[in-house]
Amino acid sequence: MSVRVRFAPSPTGRLHLGNARTAVVNWLFTRHAGGAFMLRIDDTDRERSRDEFTAAIKTDLAWLGIDWDEEAQQSVRLDQYADALDTLKAAGRAYACYETAEELDYKRKRQLARGKPPIYDRAALALSGDERKMFEAEGRKPHWRFKLDSGTVTWTDVVRGDVHYEADHLSDPVLVREDGVPLYTLTSVVDDIAFKMTHIIRGEDHVTNTVPQIQLFLALGGAVPAFAHLPLMVDADGKGLSKRLGSLSLEALRDDGLEPMAINSLLGRMGSSDAIEAAHDLKTLAAHFDLPAMGRASPRFDPIELDHLNARLLHGLSFAEAEPRLAALGLANTDEPFWLAVRGNLKRLRDAAAWWTVCRAPVAPTIEDAAFTAAAAGLLPPEPWGPETWRAWTKEVGAATGRKGRELFHPLRLALTGRGDGPELAALLPLIGRDRAAARLAGQTA
Ligand code: GLU
Fold this sequence. Notes:
Blueprint: E1 4-7, H1 17-33, E2 36-41, H2 51-64, E3 70-73, H3 78-90, E4 94-97, H4 101-113, H5 129-137, E5 143-146, E6 152-157, E7 161-166, E8 174-176, H6 184-194, E9 199-203, H7 207-219, E10 226-230, H8 250-255, H9 260-269, H10 282-287, H11 303-315, H12 319-328, H13 336-342, H14 352-360, H15 370-378, H16 389-401, H17 405-417, H18 425-432, H19 434-441
Parallel strand pairs: 1-2, 2-3, 9-10
Antiparallel strand pairs: 4-5, 5-8, 6-7
Bound molecules: glutamic acid.
């Protein structure tokens, strides 16, 4: 049986690190196994769903490098959900309810006030035919609930191990609203059966949905897939990320200049017993992916870790890969020596622009001691310059001026680049060239 998984976002917002993690983990799992990945758009709630979010989700997934073999959209599958409801009605597993939202709310409050769990009391099951007719005559439309079987629901979760849950602790879930809109509990299972999903990998916020959904798989004659519920990410203080998710949208992270593989490397491994490494590509990440290695503890999201992964990826990026991307940033005609000189110093790819300017465009030098930099300028050797030039030159400058260490190097760096830190000057100096170096040491913008 070949593996089939789905990522099923509701298009009610943009992807953020939390839901992107579900996508990445599903993708890595199925690519590791050689299976199929479906993108399913859960858009039956037409008031909250927006086509532009569907488009944005696809853009964000494509940016990460997550591709999908199949696509499904729930809003065009309403007939299938209606058929499933009919099947459940015929089997006595779906029943009509007429309570309004206010009535249900009142019931819940009364139960809570009496110290009882707010579980739906199944009053609608006891309605007589006449009572039902009376409600309908009043203009009430029924919503439909799934009648849970009493008893323990058990599954072996790929991440959580054996899970036991008492169905009696849950309300019979609503499957179809009074306006006829089918809800997630039903639509998800209908689709998981129709598209023959073998594994449902999602956040642990869905654990309690799994209980009625396992019963639904059985009631609809489907094979129950394997489940894996990932613990939700928390921040450094152990708090949920929900409030920060706006700034952790993939769009915001992309605008911040992060490499998609930094995000994939983090999302594909966080919470796992395997160390997080900067993987160059998704294929490498997939080859080593291990779902059971995902732990039960909530993984902590640390933005500094993402920055480190990003820097490590840039450090290892070849010039062949970097060149078109530098060109897209407006840096035309970059060359390999330039890239090799600066890549180890970059936090974001776009930081290369400042160093391209240092090598190829006029820069205002910072002069701390004009006599010293003028003396250093006088000792610049003739070109051609190579990787040894910096060492040989600074040795002479040191001997002539009696300076060493930071006192020697720092003013030279400030004069040559206009900045206090940056890539190794041994690599940068030949790229700056003698004319610019001499002029900058003399205090001129060059
Ligand atoms: N649309 C659901 C969500 O975004 C899908 C959950 C699932 O994977 O079953 O939470």
